């Protein structure tokens, strides 16, 4: 037996582990491999958990209860790990609601267990946007009543000092939620970081109680906004024609939503062209169809396209890859196709250029076609197609296959765009993963399966990765986070990753170099 000339991947260890033998069943009856520890199951669930959203096999309530239970277990066993995960979940994975719930439930579990230390930090880790302190307080009171423990108050207060400013007040303190800025301030009593912030805090409380007409001199942006709001409605459209309109709108912190409400008229090309320079990345992405319908100029569209395709802006925005697919479908104009493709490529920067031969199998079974949230048109099948296509396009040699009840190759050329390749996928019925692997594995150097792992039992109840020789690594990319997986994971050549971003792809070359693939945080 060779002592040194062996596959390095066979000695690698990855973070997400399962039991070595099946202990249950997938939702479609195949042998199911339970996650070996609470951290593995929690991570898989957290990176795909939209909170309060039903998936194909799991009700919203069952999914939320499982999430809360796992958070509680891990909070008691390893609070430092949970703090790191919540921060990563919010910042890198972009899972806002799951981060808020994990922080709140983790703190409650630790308080019930009379555990001190780290609770305040857990709250801080989840709050990255100015509307999120109110979100967390609303969640806490909905679950646990009006009493706020000190770690919750102090953690929210820490976040408020970092997040509350004039611009965030204009954007998020709109009166649509139960907990406005003034409510948060009165409940948590943060100490202002500077005199202007103290003025802002007092003004937020005053206007919450209907007495905020007088704006302190230090809050110039709020004062400029008040001047715009005082302008008669029939004079507002004319302001957009002024050469200094862009500066006036920027000085007043006007978002496109607030400007539309202020204008009280049709959203013309002039409207969009004046506000486009101050729009955020995601706002631009969501309004491409509106730009076309209003007839914005090619010059303005060019500026939008340049910003969309800028890799630094893509990275900073933390927009998930599937959003570019949604934008592409919503705005089919050819002038957006190229910048959206470049943006998608930038959002998939962590997808490695795998050497040798790679078999990429993309699950297109019925359970993958549920939308990822009630406010989205993107499905898990879409996400799987985006990731599978990106991996195949970058690999040295790849076979791309879609599977369900049956299976078939998806044609592509290296020069194709991922957005175009995704259009070649269809709906494939059931989840006969093992048959697809058996039919298409031809001595590849690795196999990647992008799936929800809810496989059929296959021939003689075999699990899908059994079809691949033990020396060949199989990487399962889990997109939904159910309790049981379709095969073993965590050591040897069988590994599971998860998430809706490209982050975990970087684990593949790490494992193949024989290194341990730890948590991404």
TrEMBL record:
GO terms for molecular function: metal ion binding; RNA binding. This is TROVE domain-containing protein. Gene3D superfamilies: von Willebrand factor, type A domain. It is found in: Cytoplasm. One of its GO terms (cellular component) is ribonucleoprotein complex. Keywords: Cytoplasm, Metal-binding, Ribonucleoprotein, RNA-binding. InterPro entries: TROVE2, TROVE_dom, TROVE_dom_sf, vWFA_dom_sf. PANTHER family: 60 KDA RIBONUCLEOPROTEIN SSA/RO, RNA-BINDING PROTEIN RO60. It comes from Actinomadura barringtoniae. The keyword RNA-binding applies. Residues 24-356 form the TROVE domain. The lineage of its organism: Bacteria, Bacillati, Actinomycetota, Actinomycetes, Streptosporangiales. Belongs to the Ro 60 kDa family.
């Amino acid at each position: 037996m060779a002592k040194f000339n062996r596959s390095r991947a066979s000695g690698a260890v990855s973070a997400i582990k399962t039991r070595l033998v099946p202990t249950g069943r997938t939702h479609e009856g195949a042998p199911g491999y339970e996650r070996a520890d609470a951290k593995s199951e929690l991570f898989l669930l957290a990176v795909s958990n939209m909170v309060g959203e039903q998936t194909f096999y799991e009700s919203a309530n069952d999914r939320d209860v499982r999430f809360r239970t796992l958070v509680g277990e891990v909070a008691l066993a390893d609070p430092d790990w949970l703090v790191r995960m919540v921060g990563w979940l919010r910042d890198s994975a972009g899972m806002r609601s799951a981060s808020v719930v994990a922080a709140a439930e983790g703190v409650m579990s630790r308080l019930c267990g009379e555990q001190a230390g780290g609770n305040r930090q857990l709250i801080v880790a989840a709050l990255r946007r100015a509307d999120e302190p109110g979100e967390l307080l609303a969640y806490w009171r909905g679950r646990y009543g009006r009493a706020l423990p000190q770690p919750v108050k102090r953690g929210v207060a820490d976040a408020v000092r970092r997040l509350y400013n004039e611009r965030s007040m204009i954007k998020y303190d709109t009166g649509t939620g139960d907990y406005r800025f003034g409510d948060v301030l009165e409940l948590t009593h943060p100490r202002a970081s500077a005199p202007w912030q103290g003025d802002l805090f007092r003004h937020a409380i005053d206007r919450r109680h209907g007495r905020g007409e007088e704006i302190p001199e230090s809050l110039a942006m709020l004062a400029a906004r008040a001047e715009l709001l005082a302008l008669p409605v029939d004079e507002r459209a004319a302001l957009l024609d002024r050469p200094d309109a862009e500066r006036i709108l920027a000085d007043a912190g006007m978002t496109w939503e607030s400007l539309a409400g202020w204008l009280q008229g049709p959203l013309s090309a002039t409207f969009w062209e004046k506000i486009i320079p101050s729009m955020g990345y995601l706002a631009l992405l969501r309004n491409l169809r509106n730009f076309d319908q209003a007839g914005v100029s090619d010059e303005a569209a060019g500026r939008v396209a340049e910003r969309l395709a800028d890799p630094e802006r893509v990275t900073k925005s933390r927009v998930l890859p599937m959003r570019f697919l949604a934008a592409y479908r919503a705005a089919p104009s050819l002038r957006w196709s190229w910048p959206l493709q470049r943006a998608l490529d930038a959002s998939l920067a962590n997808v490695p250029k795998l050497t040798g031969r790679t078999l990429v199998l993309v699950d297109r079974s019925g359970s993958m076609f549920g939308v990822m949230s009630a406010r989205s048109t993107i499905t898990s099948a879409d996400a799987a197609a985006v990731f599978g296509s990106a991996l195949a396009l970058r690999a040295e040699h790849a076979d791309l296959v879609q599977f369900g009840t049956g299976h078939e190759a998806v044609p592509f050329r290296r020069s194709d765009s991922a957005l175009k390749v995704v259009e070649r996928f269809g709906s494939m019925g059931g989840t006969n993963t093992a048959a697809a692997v058996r039919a298409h594995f031809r001595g590849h150097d690795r196999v990647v399966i992008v799936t929800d792992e809810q496989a059929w039992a296959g021939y003689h109840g075999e699990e899908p990765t059994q079809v691949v020789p033990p020396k060949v690594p199989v990487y399962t990319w889990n997109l939904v986070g159910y309790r049981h997986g379709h095969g073993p994971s965590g050591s040897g050549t069988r590994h599971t990753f998860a998430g809706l971003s490209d982050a975990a792809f970087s684990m593949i070359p790490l494992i193949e170099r024989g290194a341990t693939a730890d948590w991404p945080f």
